[in-house]
DNA sequence: TTACCACCTTAGGACTACTAGAAGGCAAGC
DNA sequence: GCTTGCCTTCTAGTAGTCCTAAGGTGGTAA
């Protein structure tokens, strides 16, 4: 199966700008062109792109993704480094999900509060946000 | 309690650059200065900042956050708009958590695969990513 | 045949939200 | 008096994405 850039954008739920950016920066090395110089995407290109989108949306910078894709093409000797990269990305993503779930609690409190104000005519509190004790971070070190 | 910018950065797990950025852009309207022109943060400022960090990290643009904070200061008449904003943010965040959990599955497959290659000496597959059917999006509309 | 639409292309600039560096002020300690 | 270390402001740079301009191609329809 072949796809146009538009079809791929729709399938992956990203913009055509981003796809061209990834292609122009060497992250989609197997994409072909047709007689009119238009990009032609095959299923393997979609698999590459799927991984790129996955890594990008879990916070890996483009430069690291480029490095990872080079490692894949270098072959089996690079498996240890790729393993470490994926483990790091795994724990990053778990942390991010955890952070988002904590943030969701804060947002839920806001939603519930405003519903109370609107439906039960409770007074609006000016306090913008209550900080749960557990959300304090004391491990953060700047400039390291 | 009063805090320096450094202490606040540590507490909130963000950089001092970001805090200054938020302050300079009017998002921390109550922050005082000491005799040496240094920023002095009180507990209410931490509450504001906590909400800013929460909204920012769940994807709300700075401009929208500024607007929200203006609404809070305008008083109770703006509760309906604030309610809509928080509900939108709630569903955005739920979607993002869901996306991350799907991406995590892809990463988990990679980690498991590399572990297999390293420990059980299975061959490395060149296939970068298998695209689950369920992850295809056909609702995406570009330029809207 | 000409007009028009819808898609593609490249090049280049604008934008957001930081991020970093330079240069300097002030207070405490030796 | 000097160093250290924190703070300040100002300016410039960055990543990644978005957008526009200007143009090419193919299909259809009056």
Main sheet: strand order of chain A: 1-2
What is the structural class of chain A? Answer: mainly alpha
Helix content of chain A: 55-70%
Count the strands of chain A? 2
Oligomer: homodimer
The number of helices of chain A is 5
Major sheet of chain A: 2 strands, antiparallel
CATH class of the domain at 5-74 in chain A, please?
Mainly Alpha
Any idea what the radius of gyration of chain A is?
A: 22 Å
InterPro entries (chains A, B): DNA-bd_dom_put_sf, MerR-type_HTH_dom, MerR_fam
Domain HTH merR-type (chains A, B): 1-71
Keywords (chains A, B): DNA-binding
Protein name (chains A, B): MerR family transcriptional regulator
Keywords:
60% helix, 144 residues, MerR_fam (chains A, B), DNA-bd_dom_put_sf (chains A, B), 2 strands, 5 helices, MerR-type_HTH_dom (chains A, B), MerR family transcriptional regulator (chains A, B), Multidrug-efflux Transporter Regulator, Chain: A, Domain 2, DNA-binding, DNA-binding (chains A, B), mainly alpha, two-stranded antiparallel ribbon, homodimer, disordered C terminus
Question: How does this structure look, described?
Answer:
Two copies of one chain form a homodimer. Chain A is mostly helical and 144 residues long. Chain A has a domain at 5-74: Multidrug-efflux Transporter Regulator, Chain: A, Domain 2 (Orthogonal Bundle), CATH 1.10.1660.10. In chain A, 60% of the residues lie in helices and 3% in strands. Chain A has five helices and two strands. Chain A has helices spanning 5-12, 16-24, 43-57, 62-74, 79-120, and strands at residues 32-33, 39-40. Chain A has a two-stranded antiparallel ribbon with strand order 1-2. In chain A, a hairpin with a 5-residue loop joins strand 1 (32-33) and strand 2 (39-40). Chain A is elongated and about 65 Å long. Chain A starts with a helix and ends in a 24-residue tail after the last helix. The model of chain A is unreliable at 134-144 (pLDDT under 50). Chains A and B meet through helix 1, helix 3 and helix 5 of A and helix 1, helix 3 and helix 5 of B. Chain B binds a DNA duplex (30 and 30 nucleotides) through helix 2. Chains A, B: InterPro entries: DNA-bd_dom_put_sf (IPR009061), MerR-type_HTH_dom (IPR000551), MerR_fam (IPR047057). Chains A, B: Residues 1-71 form the HTH merR-type domain.
């Amino acid at each position: 199966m072949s796809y146009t850039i538009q079809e791929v954008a729709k399938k992956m739920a990203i913009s055509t700008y981003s796809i061209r950016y990834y292609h122009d920066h060497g992250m989609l090395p197997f994409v072909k062109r047709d007689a009119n110089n238009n990009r032609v995407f095959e299923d393997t290109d979609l698999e590459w792109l799927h991984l790129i989108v996955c890594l990008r949306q879990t916070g890996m910078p483009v430069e690291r993704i480029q490095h990872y894709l080079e490692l894949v093409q270098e072959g089996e000797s690079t498996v240890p480094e790729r393993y470490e990269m994926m483990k790091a990305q795994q724990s990053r993503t778990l942390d991010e999900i955890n952070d988002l779930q904590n943030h969701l609690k804060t947002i839920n409190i806001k939603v519930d509060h405003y519903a109370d104000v609107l439906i039960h005519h409770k007074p609006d509190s000016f306090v913008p946000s209550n900080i749960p004790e557990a959300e304090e971070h004391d491990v953060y070190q700047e400039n390291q």
